[in-house]
Amino acid sequence: MSSSQPIDLRLPTPGCYADPIKAGIDADAVFDGMTEHLFFTLGKLATSASLRDLYMALSYAVRDRLMTRYLASQEAIRAKPHKTVAYFSAEFLIGPQLNNNLLNLGIQEEAEEAVKRFGIESLNDILEVEEEPGLGNGGLGRLAACYMESLASLQVPAIGYGIRYEFGIFNQIIRDGWQIEVTDKWLKGGWPWELPQPDESCFVGFGGRTENYIDDQGNYRSRWIPSEHAIGVPHDIPILGYRVNNCDRLRLWRADATESFDFYAFNIGDYYGAVEEKVASETISKVLYPNDGTDEGRRLRLKQQHFFVSCSLQDMIRSLETRNIPVEQFSENWTVQLNDTHPAIAVAELMRLLIDNHHFEWDQAWDITNRSVAYTNHTLLPEALEKWDLNLFKSLLPRHLELIYEINKRFLQQVRLRYPGNDLILRKLSIIDEEGSKAVRMAHLATIGAHNVNGVAALHSDLIKRQLMPEFADLWPEKFTNVTNGVTPRRWVALSNPELASLLDQEIGSNWITNMDLLTQLEEKENDSNFLDVFGATKLLGKRKLAGYIHRQTGILVDPSTLFDVQVKRIHQYKRQHLNALQIIAQYLRIKNGTAHSIAPRTVIFGGKAAPGYLMAKLMIRFINGIAEVVNADPDMDGKLRVVFLPDYNVKLGEQVYSATDLSEQISTAGKEASGTGNMKFAMNGALTIGTLDGANVEIRDRVGKENFFLFGKTESEIMKLRKNGYDPKQYIEKSPELSEAIRLIELGHFSNGDNELFRPLLNSLTGYDPFFVMADFDDYLLAQDRVSKAWQNHKEWNRMALLNTARSGFFSSDRSIREYCSSIWKVNPLEVEITCNIN
């Protein structure tokens, strides 16, 4: 590990930036900090402070204690230039910040004592007030957040770059069984964790035209003359590492207008025109993932992507210039990781900045770009691999399209040399899709421009090379690698499951939180009945908490002693929530028919959001709620079966769900899920998995042991064979009495108040073409659920299996993932930050 010289953060006069009042971490100092912020920042007296006031005061007090580390980390880079990770992502689902920062500072107990002095019963009362920034849609954004936390904990210098969406992912309300989207106003009342940096704003252009000219040295040049501009204003969020001085940052860009108010337009009565530019510019960072079902929606998405990428690259180049580092050394000081295709425009934008602004020749600019950029692919679904209509792209980014044409021309010449006369290969690999309406393939741009392309699970990375990009992999086999995803144990065990974390501390010491390999010591306890009972008791505590939450939110009473069978994730057909729903109907029918002799009493819990424009996914939510209405109202189901749909699933709710789960449903069609991270969080918290050989399920099963995993379903190769031979779902329905009866009940309107047309589109999909092979896997899934029921009967054996899932889950820490990125892709070393003044 390399280290810098200690950073001496001192004022011109003797003293330290870390004022003892603002840096102390004992309960007295935290209390004093809260009192000070209540009075001076919030204008409140302690006697009249609300819970939200106390939350804000505690958050500001905690932020004060981050600042010395935050500034010292930045100063360490200035004092000793060091390669820094720039993680580009359209999403950062960072979750609540207060408790995470308390944990990483090591002052949870001190904060608990401080808030009690204000007459608050528990710190949890304060934590409940916190609004969650909905800056992501699901796994992609949560992965980025886990990676940022691990980067800081591993003392790796890093900046996460993204967009500060004014309105994040929508809040979900369930009304009459349907999803209703409500605006996520996460910024209302202020958010104490960000530091606006308006002096470091950037200009970004759109539209307009390009022109050629001869510069002063007689060189032929091009320049872009945009027709509109926006200003990107950075907002920094400190990302503290666990019990270290290193504090990285998340830099999110807010869009402002270059001119906010047109006095002339206002004075002649054109009141909308007076603010038109402001409205148009600020729309860029208004909402996460605007609906791309319209031309304007697609245009806005592309503007968003270019906006945050351009701001970020300009910021990185400016950072070099302020430190007197030549731009030629960009790749020695920065490594850019593209989190999926959303930031893929970075390849063309970096080339533009180097060639047009800094007058590099093509080959040198391309060499810098290629050595700087790496690309993570997160999907095999064709619809998720972004393509932009050529006319839209040209109208918005004309100079970038010129550069892409040149990149493509030079690349295709390489392909011709490798495959002479093979026009089919040229068409398949070209950045420009010539089929139908011409489009720019962003995944191709990222793959060609990056020095490394990685998948996010062993199976996924293999499928990228075999199915998604076989020609690229043949051309550059050394470019394609795998880094299996991971999740941070700080949030997903220490914070979300304090009872389990306390047990682990007692049994193997507290170092497991940064060295998850230590969990393997738990295997020695697999036959210790007393320990297994204590381990099971931690799960029961989590289930009781979740049962209370379910009752408060939905009015449904659930029994914590039942098997908590959970599927929480984005609602999508390939994730197959409808397969789970169908097996619930089968279990319901068994109970009604008197054949449910060995079914384990279950509480089946769903959670997740459907994209507003994804009508089939929204119908799946209505389907699940329709089943829940019938099951939960039937007295025959009492003590045997309950169904719950948790509204507005997010990180905050996930912290309660993962610790309370007995059975994790990971049932996507084999070959469709890139990796998954929910499956890892469940395993860490001692849930058993029922799943297909898809994504990281394969690696989870290999590590926890096939005997501790409920496997079912056709493999990826079997699915491919079925598709090739002409798959007919009706054949599987006819051979399965239980499946046939379940479908008949749906057709009769049993779960839709007698409306036999409500679920017709869903049934037509399943019984007609069944794109995700639900019917093909149903019977095997039901048999696997029977094995679950049998295993549940022996609670000691279930606890043993659950313990082994926790004990063998260390590989799935995001710390391991980040170490792999650092060594094999980024070539980055840690930079330990030392501080000379006493901040403790």
Automatic annotation (TrEMBL):
<keyword id="KW-0328">Glycosyltransferase</keyword>
<dbReference type="InterPro" id="IPR011833">
    <property type="entry name" value="Glycg_phsphrylas"/>
</dbReference>
<comment type="function">
    <text>Allosteric enzyme that catalyzes the rate-limiting step in glycogen catabolism, the phosphorolytic cleavage of glycogen to produce glucose-1-phosphate, and plays a central role in maintaining cellular and organismal glucose homeostasis.</text>
</comment>
<feature type="modified residue" description="N6-(pyridoxal phosphate)lysine">
    <location>
        <position position="681"/>
    </location>
</feature>
<dbReference type="GO" id="GO:0005737">
    <property type="term" value="C:cytoplasm"/>
</dbReference>
<keyword id="KW-0321">Glycogen metabolism</keyword>
<dbReference type="InterPro" id="IPR000811">
    <property type="entry name" value="Glyco_trans_35"/>
</dbReference>
<dbReference type="GO" id="GO:0030170">
    <property type="term" value="F:pyridoxal phosphate binding"/>
</dbReference>
<dbReference type="InterPro" id="IPR035090">
    <property type="entry name" value="Pyridoxal_P_attach_site"/>
</dbReference>
<protein>
    <recommendedName>
        <fullName>Alpha-1,4 glucan phosphorylase</fullName>
        <ecNumber>2.4.1.1</ecNumber>
    </recommendedName>
</protein>
<comment type="function">
    <text>Phosphorylase is an important allosteric enzyme in carbohydrate metabolism. Enzymes from different sources differ in their regulatory mechanisms and in their natural substrates. However, all known phosphorylases share catalytic and structural properties.</text>
</comment>
<comment type="similarity">
    <text>Belongs to the glycogen phosphorylase family.</text>
</comment>
<dbReference type="GO" id="GO:0005980">
    <property type="term" value="P:glycogen catabolic process"/>
</dbReference>
<keyword id="KW-0808">Transferase</keyword>
<dbReference type="GO" id="GO:0008184">
    <property type="term" value="F:glycogen phosphorylase activity"/>
</dbReference>
<keyword id="KW-0663">Pyridoxal phosphate</keyword>
<keyword id="KW-0119">Carbohydrate metabolism</keyword>
<dbReference type="Pfam" id="PF00343">
    <property type="entry name" value="Phosphorylase"/>
</dbReference>
